[in-house]
């Protein structure tokens, strides 16, 4: 089995050592760089399969590095690590070419799970899921979503969804932590991307944001001119 090469950019030495050793114990080949000015030379030497970039770095920030990396290798998956939690910063990261981001402090298990997920998606691997049972729930942050029952639950509160609301939520979940094109949603749900259906989509997105408002970690971010990024 071929080893996955990972470029890890982090200027906190203690955190960096822990993360690097954990990733290596899971079979990744890791090169760690602490200075933003040294990253691109290391990238050209190492030719990684995936990148994990801290945003705040000496000499160059993670966003500008991601833009350079994207120009050299357009399809490479990139995860940002950031202490910032503002939506503007998240949008800036996606605009710079990031596929996903984790807020510090983060769980190593979550980082590893996201790395495997990104690699599977970007390398075109797919897994056919087993048929769902009616009482089977999909976790969404603090919520539980029952796709076959059209239900969204938060604690003891149960909200019944319309078929279209449930279908839209399923599409967003299928692209969790990725950007899904607005046109693709329109064609999948309505079969037509005309202005009338586009306005209907705006209404449904607003409804889902309202339904999911109790968990501040969940966001449906509008990427202007592109589509939506569902963050959980």
Keywords, separated by commas or semicolons:
single chain, 232 residues, alpha/beta, Rossmann fold, 5-stranded parallel sheet, 4-stranded antiparallel sheet, 8 helices, 40% helix
Tell me the CATH topology of the largest domain: Rossmann fold
| CA gyration radius, whole angstroms | 19 Å
The CATH class of the largest domain: Alpha Beta
CATH homolog superfamily of the largest domain = Response regulator
Low-confidence stretches: 125-130
CATH architecture of the largest domain: 3-Layer(aba) Sandwich
Account of the 3D structure:
This protein has 232 residues and is of the alpha/beta class. The chain has 2 domains: 4-122, Response regulator (Rossmann fold), CATH 3.40.50.2300; 138-231, Winged helix-like DNA-binding domain superfamily/Winged helix DNA-binding domain (Arc Repressor Mutant, subunit A), CATH 1.10.10. The chain is 40% helix and 23% strand. The chain is built from 8 helices and 12 strands. The protein has helices at 13-25, 39-46, 62-72, 87-95, 108-122, 163-174, 182-189, 195-211, and strands at residues 4-9, 28-33, 50-54, 78-82, 100-103, 138-140, 143-146, 151-154, 157-160, 179-181, 219-223, 227-231. The strands form 3 sheets. Strands 2-1-3-4-5 form a 5-stranded parallel sheet, sandwiched between helices. Strands 6-7-8-9 form a 4-stranded antiparallel sheet, with no helix packed on it. It has a 3-stranded antiparallel sheet with strand order 10-12-11, with helices on both faces. Strand 8 and strand 9 form a beta hairpin. Helix 6 crosses helix 8. The radius of gyration is 19 Å and the shape is globular. The model is unreliable at 125-130 (pLDDT under 50).
């Amino acid at each position: 089995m071929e080893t996955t090469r990972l470029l890890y950019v982090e200027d906190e030495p203690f955190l960096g050592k822990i993360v690097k050793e954990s990733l290596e114990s899971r079979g990744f080949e890791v090169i760690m760089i602490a200075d933003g000015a040294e990253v691109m030379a290391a990238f050209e030497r190492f030719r990684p399969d995936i990148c994990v970039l801290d945003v705040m770095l000496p000499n160059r920030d993670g966003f500008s590095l991601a833009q350079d990396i994207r120009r050299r290798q357009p399809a490479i998956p990139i995860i940002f690590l950031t202490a910032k939690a503002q939506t503007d910063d998240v949008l800036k990261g996606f605009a710079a070419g990031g596929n996903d981001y984790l807020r510090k402090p983060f769980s190593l298990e979550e980082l590893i799970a996201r790395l495997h997920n990104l690699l599977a998606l970007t390398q075109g691997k797919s897994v056919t899921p087993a048929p769902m049972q009616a009482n089977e729930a999909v976790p969404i942050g603090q919520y539980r979503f029952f796709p076959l029952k059209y239900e969204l639950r938060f604690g003891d509160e149960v909200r019944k969804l319309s078929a279209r609301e449930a279908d839209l939520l399923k599409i967003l979940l299928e692209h969790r932590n990725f950007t899904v094109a607005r046109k693709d949603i329109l064609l999948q749900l309505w079969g037509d991307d005309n202005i009338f259906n586009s306005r209907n989509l705006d209404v449904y997105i607003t409804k889902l944001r309202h339904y999911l408002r109790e968990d501040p970690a969940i966001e449906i971010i509008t990427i202007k001119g592109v589509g939506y990024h569902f963050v959980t």
